[in-house]
């Protein structure tokens, strides 16, 4: 009989329409969790590549349902705390409890100017703050603890960016998630709610696999700014499932005493730098 370690639990995942968010939803659903999935399903002007769509979110719903798990999917902007809270409430009305949060929604407007700075801070930092805040009361309500995972980046552990404001904002926002994680790990420990962050190097998702981000990476390499920044292990890029596997472990009882850590899943990139 297949072990389903998250049976009876509910996970709230932002940025779930595609990429890492979809991988997290599928992995946690396979482990038995019900899923509350949220995505903007719209475009942000400073982001040069296409963001997820309603069709992408519908595909995530179908894939999760194919695992046998239940899912409630809503469109919501993590920058809008009230809309995010309403989306979460829709899932809570269906499932009745919340145990796991994966704050995954993020953008990478690397070649953008000041608008990119403001948008990336609003989405990648303020959006994660909103995600945690709307989730805390629901996790506390059932009194049996929980797990919150913030999806940061290897750029949240090393000072890698171009001179473009969007790229600087990306690195700053991902570094800021470490501070956010450590504060909430302390604040929520008395309620047995664990908080950790994961820091991937490049992952093969639409955030990277688009002409704009690939050109930015190529320009960084050509300028020497990315010198020595390749993965230490012999793999050029990670897969979304690699990060989802780490999330699944962190939210499981196998990691029940792990809180307040910034965990690289980066094939040795940060250590190599």
From TrEMBL:
One of its GO terms (molecular function) is oxidoreductase activity. Signal peptide: none annotated. Keywords: NAD, Oxidoreductase. This is 3-ketoacyl-ACP reductase. Pfam families: adh_short (PF00106). It comes from the Bacteria. PANTHER family: DEHYDROGENASES, SHORT CHAIN, ESTRADIOL 17-BETA-DEHYDROGENASE 8-RELATED. InterPro entries: NAD(P)-bd_dom_sf, Sc_DH/Rdtase_CS, SDR_fam, SDR_subfam_1. SUPFAM superfamilies: NAD(P)-binding Rossmann-fold domains. Gene3D superfamilies: NAD(P)-binding Rossmann-like Domain (3.40.50.720). Belongs to the short-chain dehydrogenases/reductases (SDR) family. PROSITE patterns: ADH_SHORT (PS00061).
């Amino acid at each position: 009989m297949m072990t389903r370690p998250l049976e009876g639990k509910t996970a709230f995942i932002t940025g779930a329409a595609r990429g890492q968010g979809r991988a997290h939803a599928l992995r946690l659903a396979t482990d038995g969790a019900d899923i509350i999935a949220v995505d903007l399903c719209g475009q942000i002007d400073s982001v040069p590549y296409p963001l997820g769509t309603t069709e992408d979110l519908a595909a995530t719903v179908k894939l999760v349902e194919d695992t046998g798990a239940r899912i409630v999917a809503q469109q919501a902007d993590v920058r809008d705390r009230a809309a995010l809270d309403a989306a979460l409430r829709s899932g809570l009305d269906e499932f009745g409890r919340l145990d796991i949060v994966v704050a995954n929604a993020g953008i990478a407007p690397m070649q953008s100017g000041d608008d990119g700075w403001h948008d990336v801070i609003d989405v990648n930092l303020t959006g994660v703050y909103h995600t945690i805040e709307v989730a805390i009361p629901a996790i506390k309500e059932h009194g049996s603890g929980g797990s919150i995972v913030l999806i940061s980046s290897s750029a949240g552990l090393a000072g890698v960016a171009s001179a473009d404001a969007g790229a600087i904002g990306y690195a700053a926002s991902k570094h800021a998630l470490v501070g956010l994680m450590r504060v909430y790990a302390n604040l929520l420990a008395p309620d047995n709610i664990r908080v950790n962050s994961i820091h991937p190097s490049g992952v093969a998702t639409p955030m990277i696999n688009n002409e704009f981000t690939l050109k930015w990476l190529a320009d960084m390499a050509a300028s020497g700014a990315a010198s020595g920044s390749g993965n230490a292990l012999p793999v050029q890029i990670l897969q979304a499932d690699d990060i989802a596997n780490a999330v699944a472990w962190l939210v499981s009882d196998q990691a029940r005493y792990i809180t307040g850590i910034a965990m690289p899943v980066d094939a040795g990139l940060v250590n190599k730098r």
